[in-house]
Amino acid sequence: MVSLEDGITSCGFRKMAAFVARINEDTESCYVSTNRYRNIRNGLRGTLGSAGSLENEDIDLAARHLIEADVVGFSSMTGYAELTRRLITRVKELDPSTFVIWGGIHAIIQPEDAILADVDAICTGEGEFAFEELYELLKEGRDPTAVKNFWFKQPDGSVIKNHFLPLMSVEQMESLPFPQYGEGETIYETGQGFAPMNAQHYIDNDGLSYTTLWSIGCPFHCTYCGNTKFIANDAKYKRIRHPSARYIVDEVKTARERFPHLSHVSFHDDSFMAIPYREIEEFAELWKAELDLPFAVYGVIPNYVKRDKFELLTWAGMNRVRMGIQSGSRRTLDFYKRPSPPEKILAAGEVNASFAPKYHIPPAYDIITDNPIETADDIRETLQLLYDMQRPYTLFIYSLKVIPNTELEKAMKERGVDIEEISATFMAIPPRLNNLLLYVLTMWRPPEWLWKRLLKHVKASTEDQRMYPRLGRWLRAMYLSRRALSHLVKLDFSAIPGRTGYYFWRLGLIGMWRKHMTRRLPRPPRPEKEIAREQRAQKIAA
Q: Angle 186-80-51 (CA atoms, 0-180°, nearest 5)?
């Protein structure tokens, strides 16, 4: 199996790799990436998300290793599609008999593009149980082309497009092995070939943090998100599904047994806070009793920010959240079909900020900028919302990237927008005034008189305007430094990759800091509504 991503900790790939290794012990997981580590230079340039490429010599060297397998499965995001295609082509040139499958996000969102590569099949849905059926048929020498969740290319070039399997049930998710982490994995080294991965590879990329998912699914239908394709394939994807709290706690415990340096966990669920309180309570109690590790929750939706959940999770160890705002303009939010109006965003921001900096690192908010359909007034509304937001906070700022086959792509084309002109590097923020003001707001709230004057000069991204590249680099450096400092003051290395945090851990400083310097929130009382719900359930059971 081959992963082509912008890092080496892809949650989906590691889950799939563990499952395939269980049904075939000879499975090898290979990581190929041109930008596998986060570093200061890429952060300042805004090129952390750029895919890059490989020289033909490296493509050949990697492919020669891959053809040692009878079946090769590729997984990639759309940004790595071209690199994936080149590798697939070379594998087939070297050994046409190799059975090649392309899966992952790109194959699901753009199956019509993926099937054009020199592949035998593409996986268009959840891969674990579908691949198990395909694997058994291949092993028995039988025709696999009826397996659901796959498209198959025929010798004459025609394509068999099979329907989807039902989404995994909770019981099936519970039966999956824990994600592969540090066993049977190799990584491509330029000019040298694949080498076994070790703890240092993870430390260089993810610091002391372990990245995972507890839940899958999202109740929202935002046009810019790849989830719209998943929901189009099966409307039940909007439901939140997850294994038990026991499962996810044991997963983290298993990873820490292998790599004791793991001192923080990052949950990249689409909507962690939408999980019901009683299930979060079970998770929090197990986590506190058996791990007592700090953890961050990404993918927070303003509509689901509730103080009772925040208090419970903070007691368990939550020390950071990341919430999607995207825009402060009602018109833009409607365009994105995102039902989080500004008043809900502000209310959620008050809850978030009330835990920082005493218990939390300042919350991070996602903002999408450089949208060609936005007017200057739309941009001013976003800036004003952030000006009014409760502090402290930081921002994750992204130039709009249109994912193919999403509702956003269709809406943009209907408005005559040339999608090719939109920045391909979503983290390389053009240094125009409104974007620079985003950096400023993470560090300083200007006096109101000055703020109003600055807003008058804001223009739409499609208007001609002056760029400030030197000022942009300076402000971005300050903004990133401020973000890093907010982690360092709590001796948190979850967002600071590299060996510095590892040395702190080896010296015992991180454990000592958390034991003696970290403030702990007392166990909050159960909400009255939860007590009432439990009493009703007991009466029904009686």
A: 90
Q: Are residues 161 and 308 in the same domain?
A: no
Q: Is residue 105 part of a domain?
A: yes
pLDDT digits (tens, 9 = 90+) for 53-95: 789 999 999 999 999 999 999 999 888 899 999 999 999 999 9
> Distance between CA 121 and CA 144 in Å, rounded?
10
480 C-beta neighbours (distance < 10 Å), count:
16
Domain boundary among 126, 144, 175: 175
Residue 257 and residue 118 share a domain: no
pLDDT of 187-200, one tens digit each? 999 999 999 998 88
Query: CA-to-CA distance for 233 and 227, rounded, in angstroms?
Result: 10
Helix residue spans in 337-495 (DSSP H): 342-354, 376-388, 407-414, 433-443, 448-456, 469-488
- Residues 6+ positions from 27 with CB-CB distance below 8 Å: 1, 17, 20, 21, 184
Q: Is residue 404 domain-shared with residue 287, that is, in the same domain?
A: yes
Amino acid at 205: N
Q: What is the pLDDT of residue 40?
A: 53
Confidence class of residue 11 from pLDDT cuts 50, 70 and 90?
confident
Count of domains forming the chain: 2
- Whether the CA torsion 397, 399, 400, 404 is positive or negative: it is negative
Between vectors from CA 358 to CA 352 and to CA 361, what angle results, nearest 5°?
A: 60
Q: Are 523 and 315 in contact (CB under 8 A)?
A: yes
Work out the number of other CB atoms within 10 angstroms of the CB of residue 39. 15
Range of the domain at 99: 2-175
Contact 302, 323 (CB under 8 A): yes
343 and 461 fall within a common domain? yes
pLDDT digits (tens, 9 = 90+) for 360-372: 999 999 999 999 9
Q: Are strands 185-189 and 29-31 parallel, antiparallel or unpaired?
A: parallel
Residue 49 has pLDDT above 50, yes or no: no
Whether residues 103 and 247 share a domain: the answer is no
CATH number at residue 471: 3.80.30.20
Q: Are 234 and 261 in contact (CB under 8 A)?
A: no
